[in-house]
Amino acid sequence: MINLTDKQCCCGCHACYNCCPQKCISMQSDVEGFWYPVVDLERCTDCGLCEKACPVLCKSTVDNHPLAYACINKDDKIRKQSSSGGVFTVIAESVIANHGVVFGAGFDEEFSVVHSWTDSIDSLGNFRGSKYVQSCIGDTYKQIRDFLKQGRQVLFSGTPCQVAGLRTYLGKDYEALICLDIVCHGVPSPLVWEKYRSKMANNRAFKAISFRDKILGWRKYSISFEFREGEILTELGSENKYVQGFLKNLYLRPSCYNCSFKSINRQSDITLADFWGIENVLPNFDDDRGTSLILVNSGKGDVIFSSQADKVYCEKVNINLALLYNPSAIKSVDYNPKRSLFFKELGSTDISQLVERYTKVSFFRKVYVKGRTMLSRIKRQVIG
Ligand SMILES: Cc1cc2nc3c(=O)[nH]c(=O)nc-3n(C[C@H](O)[C@H](O)[C@H](O)COP(=O)(O)OP(=O)(O)OC[C@H]3O[C@@H](n4cnc5c(N)ncnc54)[C@H](O)[C@@H]3O)c2cc1C
Fold this sequence. Notes:
Elements: H1 15-19, E1 25-29, E2 35-39, H2 49-53, E3 67-73, H3 76-81, H4 87-97, E4 101-107, E5 113-118, H5 140-149, E6 154-158, H6 160-170, E7 177-182, H7 190-201, E8 206-213, E9 222-227, E10 232-236, H8 241-247, E11 270-274, H9 278-281, E12 292-296, H10 299-307, E13 312-317, H11 319-324, H12 339-345, H13 351-359, H14 363-383
Parallel strand pairs: 4-6, 6-7, 7-11
Antiparallel strand pairs: 1-2, 3-12, 3-13, 4-5, 8-9, 9-10, 11-12
The structure holds flavin-adenine dinucleotide.
């Protein structure tokens, strides 16, 4: 049975919960707001299926030759609603046109982030756009297996650990299953997100939330909150407390600091990412309205991506050059030494003030960092 001794070893993918024939595993939030499996020992028969479904315990290695592309959806409206070039929607629409089903991360009525499915192109909007919080998988993997058994094509889109969890849960490849993963910085705590959005709501109801509003451009993206009564609050991501805490790794899931799924050789068929550095790699693909970096990881990925060539502007690029600007693809983020103190204080004070306190760069550090940068520049000149 799953016996969790180190939280860094659980990515919260829900594979063990989905596979338990006794239904004796529940996913429960810890004090930081992350889900972990809890086994009802009275009902557990120790069949071992949960361990076999765990993508961290049963890690697969992939031997493939991914190809990298810069890519932009020709549909400007969809691209504007998407985090980068809007390629997720291109693939999702083709699956739905083929009478398939699309699973992705969207908001529920309370604006928590959850995985769900749709087979309607009109409902894809809820999946569009990155949500900077861990999404709850729930019963998704069981639902996917049911659809696959009915013979329907399924597109699953999620983080690399969620794709790995789905694969170990299914235990075999299905021709009709296509997996998309994202290059993932790491996933923030659902509890921190709950506290932040309730502060933003201030007893009002949200109509829409975007973590990647392109109103001031793709590079300098904004976070925006639209309320039912019409007001819209928008703030540059670089100035917003929630985004700052996310980017400074203050409240990511413990497993994200030692992610088992960072690699060029991925378990998904296609990987989606922001093409950071596009201005240096392919300047003619940069209009600051969002360009996707696409890794085509398998033959299946190649078939579906090539079939949509008329819907996108696309150019092949050198994968090593592309990933140079996107270290999150292959390297876990650094642990923030203030993380545990932050969580100890969470709930005791205003969330924005707390994040500000824990992300503020002290005067000493500013001077030190500046000094160090200058020093390394001098060293490079001397060496060079
Ligand atoms: C937490 C997180 C961290 C990321 N970190 C990086 C990074 O470091 N570098 C980088 O290049 N790109 C990162 N991305 C991916 C990037 O922001 C875009 O999602 C990607 O470029 C796809 O954009 P798109 O325009 O094709 O489609 P979009 O319409 O923007 O794609 C949305 C897709 O992302 C999925 N998704 C959204 N939120 C979540 C979530 N919380 N959990 C699982 N799946 C989700 C949806 O299911 C949908 O398939 C991250 C995304 C998330 C959610």
